[in-house]
Predict the structure.
Amino acid sequence: MHSKYDIMRYLIVAISVICFFSMDEQSLYYSEGRIDYEEILVQTINIKLNGKPDIIKESFQKWMEDKYDVDLDGKSLLFFDKEFMKANGVVIPEISSRKIDLIVKVDETAADATSFHVFAKFKNGDFIIKKLFPYEFKELESIVFQYITAYLSEFYITGAKAVEKTIEDLKDHKGDIKELKKN
């Protein structure tokens, strides 16, 4: 039998978890932008998501590998470029049959938000920009939207499962609460 304090502590924790998940919403910002890369102003697809940068960065890397067999990595043998994740010489048929370098600048300046600046260039050095390569740019944008959809779906499903588990735990202890009322 649980003591009155154990039951009250459990109720406080359960209510706190429910409140946390009901208030924990995801904000998404999308825009087109420009950044300086290799001394060239490059058009980018920008997204900003709430969440720890390391978690979202890892999620994006894993998603690209699973979905497109693209290994985005910020590391090379001699250097570590934390600012950019790159996949050099990859073919993503949705974008082009030609080899491209997919580049993602990760802005980790905020502890609770992550900004990605996604862009690509062909191996001949031409950047995929909307004006010169509208089809390829649109497909790159589509890939970014697919990732956002997958990430947000997982974010809310995980939160809903946690709330469901808390509710089930509360139901399991309903008898204990009725017993507490009797005392």
Summary: Helices lie at 4-23, 53-68, 134-172, 174-182.
